[in-house]
Amino acid sequence: HVTRRADYTPPDWQVPDIALDFDLAPERTRVRATLNVVRGGAHDRPLRLDGGGQTLLSVSVDGVAVNDWTLEDGALVLPLAGSEHVIETEVEIAPDRNTQLMGLYASGGNLCTQCEAEGFRRITFFPDRPDVLSRYRVKMTADKARFPVLLANGDPIAQGDLEGGKHWAEWHDPFLKPCYLFAMVAGDLHANKGQFVTMSGRTVDLGIWVRAADVPRTQHALEALKTSMAWDEKVYGREYDLDVFNIVAVDDFNFGAMENKGLNVFNSRYILADPDTATDYDYDAIAAVVAHEYFHNWSGNRVTCRDWFQLSLKEGFTVYRDQSFSADQGSAAVKRIEDVRGLRAAQFPEDAGPLAHPIRPDEYQEISNFYTATIYNKGAEVIRMLATMLGAADFRKGSDLYFDRFDGTAATCEDFVHSMEEASGADLSQFRLWYSQAGTPRVKAQIAHTPGSGRAVLTLEQTVPPTPGQPDKQPMVLPIKLKLFGAETAKPLSEEKLAILSDGRAEIAFEEVTERPVLSINRGFSAPVVVETDRTPEDLAFLSAHDDDPFARYEAMQQLMLDTLVADASGMQSDHDAVIAAVALTLDDPALDRAFVAEAVLLPSESFIGDQMAVVDPDAIYAAREALRHAIGKTLEAKWRGIYALAAAQGPYAYSPAAKGLRRMKTVALGYIAASGAADAATLAFAQFEAADNMTDRQGALTSLVNSDGKERVAALDIFYNRYSDNALVLDKWFQTQALSQRDDTLAAVQDLVRHSDFTLANPNRARALVGAFAVNQRAFNAASGAGYRFVADQLIALDKLNPQTAAKLLPPLGRWRRFDAGRAALMKAELERIVSTPGLSKDMFEQASKSLAG
Ligand code: ARG
Ligand code: ZN
């Protein structure tokens, strides 16, 4: 069954008010719902309340029990005469048997909810669509010893004790919200509490709720929350609106976190951190996700989405907001590099594969499958392009207009673009193609310089590749930042230009070009496109040393490395000296911050190299990359050792940008020392592993050891496991590090790990750490025997029976068969066919697998 954007109609019935009364217990929870329903317009259609899996106990209309209802596809259909009624339903659900983790479920002995996108219908019968906005009153009753804390959206109103060891609490949320933002948590939880005074002087009570033993790991998240609240006031003029803001961390969660009004629920990996258990990367991710969910209070909650095709309205904008926030907290250049690396790793392959879709899709079978890198990350790039083209002041005017005009409503992507247009006066008609056309545009750039004339002409040509269902594309609006540098003097020959390419082809003239120009293009990654130029390896090396835009400088080095690696992997022996010289220059440049250098000197990933090739050859790519790593490691061994010694000599752990940069550099240097083939590499790594006073150093060393052969590898894995056997998040790292190993026996190791007593598919983090990580280990997953494909398909078929949503998310690597040789393609297709023909397959998996076969 397919849902289409074009078929949207407003709801037949609105529900301005709802009261929920829960009698909570893991085995059996009673839900009594009282809905005020109002007919929307003149029609005679019955009231249809979505449902899913609950046991219906009773239905009444205006206080009178009725039985003229029917159940259709899980929905309760009730004929009603007048235009306003009070509907009461009573249902029973079993949270402890909810393995899908959608609706009300049990995690670690506590009860929690996840409703986005369509989980609320599994709790009670309701019009489960985001354009039905209601005021919620929630009463929770539960055993007081087992569930001492009772939380829901909004403000706490009253609480009390009952006979039989029970207690109750009542919460009211004064803001209209769609049911996907409903949340409720009951459990034995303890809070790290704080306060925030808003710009208008209101005091908000903050609480990060976790199990007692985890409270010491919540300070970073609490600080990030306060910083986010201040940032949204300063940068977007958005103030928080309730008296309390609570966050609960749970171990079993299908994705990162959820922005429920006043009660965010988080995957514990995005809350819990201390130096001993969390890496610098984890700390950054926690701040980013805390900010992301907080920012949704405006971009998502106060203004929500009319329907799920508009998902990028809240997600693209909110990712853009959290990226800007993170950029403001540390190095903006390094943040941009990380975001672009993420986009290329996750979104570009999506755009180039069978599951390609525009940021505002036209149809879906299962909406959960559309929480993608395209909706989120390409969506953020689209908002970023608007900000770039309109400028900060007009972008802010547009955002103010959007928030003011659509506050309290369910809006569309069009409403957002129109607000930007109205506030700025810009014409965004063609720009709207970004919402409807899928595929990553390609831009070809060539520069012609006539020495003596002082004139240089840059020719830009764009093409947008065909994607499933979209064979022909129109040219898009591409904001491309450009600058020219003189090849002899290394001086800028022009100011930075923002070229807006909106035709298939354009020429841009530069005057007073007094020496051979070297082109710096798509600076800051101003447009999410692939750029092809005729720049030579010398030009790229030159830019990697002299460009004044840090992203462009990184990019030049990456392109140089990529060209070399693609040539090597294609059997055309290339020259490694240019890369090695460029790396050496970057290492020696005292003006660069260490975090930037660490990013710049890392080779592109195996999968990104594969993305550049007509047919991905995983073994040749691996060999080429290892050979270049060896050459860089060996030739510059003295430098790597110098850097390593310097970084290793830093004092005790500190969480500062400088200390983070040094730690990053240390692990990169260790990697190159190992790649050089040095005999003492494992000794060095093991020493780092043992001496580490923080997880970044410890995991960095472990990653290096896991790729090695010596006795240190086994010892480190044992020590790590024993030290952290009671910490689920760190055990995830233990599983993941092994699944990403470059050793030849990785598949066998992973097959053993599936049988490990700590492995379970029931916990999404654990499933992703092992199965998900293995599926992106390009060489191991794509073993020519097909054993990697078979292993992943087996696991996904098993996982689908428990948790379809998480299973379906892990399928895309199997859908990349067109990118491989005929042998591998046939093996991958066979696994997809096996999945599609599995009896009882979920619609989540069916959509992903069948589209992957057809696309
Ligand atoms: N809105 C949440 C966030 O972006 C994620 C919800 C994901 N839901 C889903 N069905 N995949 O933070
Ligand atoms: Zn979000």
* Unreliable segments of 5+ consecutive residues: none
Q: What is the mean pLDDT? A: 98
Ligands, ions, cofactors: arginine, zinc ion
Beta-strand portion reads 15-25%
The biggest beta sheet reads:
8 strands, mixed
N-end to C-end Cα span:
18 Å
How many beta-strand elements?
31
Q: What structural category characterises the helix and strand content? A: alpha+beta
Give the fraction of residues assigned to helices. 40-55%
Q: Over all CA atoms, what is the radius of gyration?
A: 28 Å
Shape call: globular
By DSSP (H or I, 4+ residues per run), the number of helices equals: 27
Q: Provide the spatial order of strands within the biggest beta sheet.
A: 6-5-9-3-2-12-15-14
Describe the structure in your own words.
A hairpin with a 2-residue loop joins strand 7 and strand 8. It is built from 27 helices and 31 strands. The model has no long low-confidence stretch (mean pLDDT 98). Helix 9 packs parallel to helix 11. It is α+β, with helices and mostly antiparallel strands and 855 residues long. The chain has an eight-stranded mixed sheet, with no helix packed on it. The structure holds arginine and zinc ion. Arginine binds next to strand 20 and helix 2. It comes from Sphingomonas immobilis. This is Aminopeptidase N.
